[in-house]
Please model this.
Amino acid sequence: MMTTAQSIIKNRVLIVDDQPGMVETLADILKDRGCSVTLASDGYQAVKQVGEQSVDLVLMDIVMPGMNGLDTYRAIKHLRPQTPVVMMTGYKVDHLVKQAIHEGTLAVLQKPVDPATIVAIVLAVLRLTT
Amino acid sequence: MNGDTTFPMFHRIPFLPRQLLMAIIAGLGAWASTRLIEERHTRYVAERHHAAQLAVTRVLAESATLGEAAPRLFEAICEGEGWDWGGMWEVDEDAHLLRCQHVWHSSFLPLPEFERMTRQTSFPRGVGLPGRVWATGQPAWIPDVVKDENFPRAAVAQKEGLHAAFGFPILLRREVLGVMEFFSRGIRPSDGYLLSMMAEIGGKIGHFIDRRRAEQALRKAENDLVESKLSAMFQVAAGVAHELRNPLGVIRNSAYYLKTKMQDDPKIARHFEIIEEEIAASDRVIDQLVHFGRPIQLNPHPYDVHSIIKDALAVLKVPSEVKVVLQLGAPAASVLLDKDHFRRVFINLFRNALQAMDGNGELRIDTEIRAHEVHINITDTGKGISPHHLTRIFEPFFTTKAKGIGLGLAISKQIIELHRGRIDVWSKPGCGTAFRLSLPLGEERP
Model:
């Protein structure tokens, strides 16, 4: 059963990245802005978590070992079609980016991404989906 | 027996009629002088041959390519030996034909029709003068081409007054690489000496071609090696740069987090600023290394150049002592271009200008339409670039800055040229530097 608070305030962010430093720092930055953050170090973990509990936003790297960001996005969309997903990429993976946008990814951020930009985007998306 | 029988001639001389004696003396004189003229002529011809041979040797030594040597070879042979027109044929091994590559005529005697026909004709083995030389691998002489049975260009030759001809093979180890042919307006009997000399020259030209081919192959191999080394270097550089991008991102996040936690102390705030600036600088290097050596993909659309200039300026921190003067005079300077790439070009040029001024001076950006181009002039009052460095600033990895890897201008030039534009630079050390970007206006897509 969902609590009343969770159904009104949308602040649950899932960060998916295979780089531990990246998830940890982003988590601390977003927690400071009032987000409730969960972490996943690869696509499988992310899909598992989304399956167990819905989140309000997924922030995810595109290039990851194992299941890449696009496949993870497809799985999440299958489980919870309404979940907004923002992707980040440091590689020139135009085909993945194009396909991800085509299939409905909210935004793809090209690394290096300014943390202030991430904060602004995350807050804007959460407010939009409130 | 007396002396009469021993020396009858002398004994009889006094009895010869005076006129007869005079005639004999005159005859002897004429014979001697003819011999003298003949001897002189032979010596003259030999000297001429020798001079022509020397000239050919010199031309071959001085020329880098056969194309460069050809006109001078014709000149040396035609002018040295008194011939009016020459053609050089090359064996096309795939088509089994001789094709005319070069022609030459003496400055007094253009032969437009013969020349046109020669250029349009190709000969199989055995046909015409060149084909004959090709088939036998030997020089050939035709006293009068008009009367020759195996000379397809006879009619045109007659029309333009050509008669005698000879040809010799350009030989390399018995293989005929090509044929040279020469024509004269006069009818001339075969000259065996000239032909044997020309056969020798043909061998020299063959060696010349062989040597140049070998040099070319060597140069190509060297270039390929340099290119493959460079490309391997770029790959490694791009790979390393890429691996640095992620940890740098983490550092940036950490600095950002700490900064929000420690806002009160101005000293600490300043240090965070420094960290951020240095991360941004490192990111630029990474960006350049990752992008360089990779084919640039353009996504051109019509854009207002002025708005891209303003966008780029907005990204940069302009020191308070630097005055930025914008004179965007080009009306509606809409150009087909890739906005993201051009933003990088402008940021790079503006940043260079700001760095050259070291916090103090004037950055002037003006635009104008000239003919079918928009010109964007970026002028600074910075320290300038020495003439010695100016010629190298667009080379990859060339830099005069203590920081930086020297790819900014190389990439900018690449991007501009992909848009069919140009970048020019003027500089005066101590006074400043001006860059001009010229981009084509109009609907033509890059």
Remarks:
- The radius of gyration of chain B is 39 Å.
- DSSP finds 13 helices and 13 strands in chain B.
- Residues 192-261 of chain B form the longest helix (70 residues).
- Confidence is low (pLDDT under 50) at residues 1-5 of chain B.
